[in-house]
Design a protein that fits this description.
alpha+beta, nine-stranded antiparallel β-sheet, seven-stranded antiparallel β-sheet, 16 helices, 24 strands
Amino acid sequence: METVHRRKDMGFETGTSEDEWVVVSGNAMGLGTSDDQQELKVEFFSPAEYWTDALPVGNGRLGAMVWGGVQSELLQLNEDTLWTGEPSDYTDPNFATVLPQVRKLVTDGQFAEATTAAKKMTGQPTEVYQPLGDIKLDFGASHKVFDGNSYKRELDLDTAKATVKYVAEGIEFTREVFASHPHQVIAVKISANKTGAVSFTVALDSPLQYESHINGQNQIIMQGQCPGKRAPPQNDVYEVRQGIKFCAILELHISTDAGVVSSIEEKNLKVEGSNWAVLILAASSSYDGPFTNPVDSKKDPVAATSATLNSIKDMAFSELYASHLIDYQQLFHRVSLQISKSSKMSSQNSGTSISSITNGNEDHPSAEMKQNVLSGKISTADRINAFAKDEDPTLVTLLFQYGRYLLISSSRPGTFVSNLQGIWSQKVAPAWDASPHLNINLQMNYWPATSCNLSECQEPLFDLISNLAINGSKTSQVNYKTGGWVTHHVTDIWAKTSPSDGDPVWAVWPMGGAWLCTHLWEHYTYTHDKGFLESKAYPLLKSCVAFLLDWLLEDTKGILVTNPATSPEHQFIAPDGQKASVSFATAMDMAIIREVFSATISAAQVLGSTSDDLISKLKDAEPKLFPPKVSRDGSLMEWVTMENATHREEKS
């Protein structure tokens, strides 16, 4: 078996250093081994205190964050099409009058002044991703005191299931949660190792405007709508402008031989004395694509949600889980990865040590920490903290597969793209609106798609690019007086393509569509799907480069440059000592353009379309593109006339 050695200094060479990692398995299509599966768990030994500690499950469209509380449990819910707003006009005729002014200032070397002037090129913010609501479980006083040593909360990446276990009053309770893609539901099972021990109340609510009621003996139906504009809902009064409507139905089933169900105030359900209980959550919205106003939508979310539940009315929890497992694992099991330390190192350290988990106080680990290590109770958070002192390669494997898990769980054919939060967001006003950011974040979400054998999960990205091309052609024509299509640094479910509000350092950047187009060509290079290339990728690439050819300007030496140009969320110190963000021919702009030109020419060669006039123009323009420049210290210059720059702060 071929082995690859990785030294801690990031060099790649062979040897027997104790600091090496060794790739011992990398089967691109095989199933993981049992050892692999043991490693692929995110584990905690206490309930979540913060949203970021909760466990995410998702089926691409529906998501939940499982907190794992004992006396009370919280599952925070999302549905991928719940957004504020409606389709809009993504053009600005005034943009074209400001553009020549900014260009002249850049040409004259007045970069700070150009940055100030470019503020008139900014536009409106995106709409905002909204949460669906919460499933709230209350287990009562009998769960107030529990055996802390018995508690475990885990997300098994191999099965895409979250599990919570603990002992209260001598009874072991188990909760299992998964999100089924085949049947489009979130399923929860609550069980105990003692007959008749399962009792709780369950509620379904939302931070959005909604009403709920009990239907029959075992359903809670919640109906509501998103704000018609990007503002949080006010009290219980609906926005005048109608937003996207939604419906969620929580259906309850209990054991037939024990237990009773009753309603509380016609809003909540109460279970008493059951052997087990199963909760099934289905939800849908009235969203009918980025070009249909919510008020004109013919979709009925109540009917759609009811139909989903009716389709599985005769299925047991085990049957739902079995179909979920088959669907999920046919994606997840395509790639396995096992990394270990060198044999010498492994013999000295077979796992995470006590000292490495003590957060810098390795000489005096607490008795509790020692006991946790000796009993095998090392949480994922402990492993992360220990990594600085003990580079556990199994944690790297876990992180790698966690990334694949999140993509599978937040992006499936027919869903919206994995947004800035994936699909997991608990706030009506989330950070950066949870909108897809095209200046690196959305691309990062999908970088693992082809290289990690999840090509199907990239289909929502291609659907978004197609929608952006429609709106972006209008933005190109009106704002820039150019052909083709363009989009900027951020978008939303309505396929916004115009510049966002705020500072030109991020807003004035028309390269979002071009960078996305590199994913089209990469998909073909991995799949060799000529039908995809011909029907979808190539038309989008051609229209994208049509804009780029019109956008590029010749400088006095006949070199093609972009003006204005920014490096997203970066500033530089201009020669006059002032901070600025607007310049010309930034390295990022030119690198993206060069890559898209090359991809389009290559696509034309594959399809036998090299005689197209557009391809001839690309071939003529390609050697004239402004080349990369190297500074005195040997680094690549992002701005061609500046040696000093202030780094951006990455979104997290």
